[in-house]
Design goal:
The chain is α+β, with helices and mostly antiparallel strands. It has helices spanning about 5-15, 35-40, 45-50, 55, 70-80, 135-150, 155-165; strands spanning about 20-25, 30-35, 85, 90, 95, 105, 110-120, 125-135, 185-190, 200-205, 215-220. A hairpin with a 5-residue loop joins β1 (about 20-25) and β2. The longest helix has 17 residues, at about 135-150.
């Protein structure tokens, strides 16, 4: 007979998952986090679990154009209202450095995906917030854009496309294809809550590869 993982096993699996995962309640309280996320955000589990998402990750007060909180909140609200995953564009969202790292904020860019965890009634009981740190990628693209602007004509199509990708405000797609950051991540449905945490069952989403807006397709046992 096949042995199924216990809730404690799932917690261990979640903590060891090779990606940056944060588990939120519908009121956006942090209820779980894995080690990769802690490392990526320079935080400690005991400092963030049980506290509000935007209390721990506010906008950078030194950046007058910071809009990370507003855009992330809007995405999470769409997940709760629609009970569907919501993929965000690459987002500039600076994070606080701990005091032992000198304090202040550090510039970061992220590619986020927010996914609902539904209970047996189909209601959102948790939200899985997954992010990929793409800061180095964005910095490289910025360097390439600057080099391109120096070495080509002002009306260079490639320069225009690079600029739109970096700003995150592309108004049209090039006919030759588009840059995509495709991700396979994990999605869980809850069964019934318990004092030791919700048993969770895995399924896997895949994303569309068309040039239109991507929509994850969910596979796995949802019963």
């Amino acid at each position: 007979m096949q042995q199924h993982p216990s809730p404690q096993d799932y917690q261990t699996i979640f903590d060891a998952a090779p990606g940056n995962y944060l588990l939120l309640s519908p009121d956006l309280t942090i209820v779980g986090v894995n080690q990769c996320y802690l490392t990526a955000t320079m935080t400690r589990r005991e400092d963030i679990v049980g506290r509000g998402l935007f209390e721990i990750f506010p906008d950078n007060p030194e950046d007058a154009n910071a809009d990370g909180v507003r855009k992330l909140r809007a995405s999470l609200e769409r997940v709760i209202a629609g009970k569907r995953p919501d993929r965000m564009p690459v987002q500039k969202y600076d994070i606080r450095r701990p005091e032992w790292e000198g304090g202040g904020f550090e510039e970061r860019y992220w590619s986020p995906l927010n996914s609902p965890v539904l209970d047996d009634r189909g209601e959102v009981s948790y939200i899985i917030h997954w992010v990929e740190d793409v800061t180095e990628f964005i910095r490289l693209k910025q360097q390439m854009m600057q080099q391109d602007l120096r070495n080509t004509k002002p009306d260079s199509t490639s320069s225009m496309i690079e600029a739109e990708v970096i700003s995150g405000r592309r108004r049209s797609r090039p006919t030759g294809g588009s840059l995509r950051l495709d991700v396979t991540t994990s999605f869980w449905r809850t069964s019934s809550p318990s004092s030791s945490g919700p048993p969770i069952r895995p399924a896997l989403p895949t994303t569309s590869t068309t040039d239109g807006p991507s929509s994850p397709t969910w596979t796995g046992n949802s019963s």
